[in-house]
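Help wanted!
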Amino acid sequence: MILKRIPSLPSWSTGFRDLDEARRDMERLFDSLAGQTTRRSAGVYPPINVSEDSDSVYIRAELPGIKIDDLDLTMEDNTLTIAGERKQANEDDSASYHRREREWGAFRRSFSLTSRVAADGIQANYLDGILTVTLPKAAEARPKQISVQAGA
Amino acid sequence: MTVLVKEKTKKEMEPRQKQEITGAEATRPGPVFTPAVDIFETESAITLLADMPGVQADGLGIDLRDNVLTIDGRIKRAEDRGEQMLLQEYETGSFRREFRLANSIDQNGIDASLSNGVLRLTLPKAEAARPRKIEVRSG
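Answered by r_m:
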């Protein structure tokens, strides 16, 4: 009888992936209630996301519609600079605009890198309007597997 | 002597927050954003440019019915890559936007191309909607 009154319990068969998704939804909800929809924005174009896996650190920026020649990445004294310009497209003179929301102009943003990054192995890739800078971790910063030996 | 040539001041880009769509929920989880668009019209066509970074051609859906144009772009989310986020200044998600078109469009002539995260959609006007010059006779 008692069991019947318990509301349906969450099913654990959904797996951790869904729980992870639910946690993110909660975070997003709290952020929007606090009035900060983007977290820790530096107020500089372009906004970036930084992520890592065991081998590398990745810096990503959404930069749609930029020619590769107009992108300028430099590395100097452990400072990585992403600079560039999004040019305004010259359309037909007779075109009359209904909307013009897409921004254009120059941008520049610099990052200080720690010594945990192997500076000579940096790679940059621009695909589908997203710039990805891959910073390989220095050997000492990578996780090391420690083998456990059975005691004699 | 070095002569410093002052560079012509360029317009600086401002960071702008992506506009998230609220309201009717999508069936897939995750945020949906409104892409920034340019729309311009010439005598023969209406052209739409939309910023949809991360969208590939196979994730793009364009639909035109009853004069309502819907553009829809799905992306592969960063979490799927098995990386851990350290800093997040922007969110990633799908893009979706609808427009009501005033002119009738020649459905067979619609052309869409996607390059570096920018969608270019050309919607040719139907013959009946093109401006016609009417000659005025004197007499």
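OP: Thanks! One thing I noticed: Chain B touches chain A through 47 residues (CB under 8 Å).
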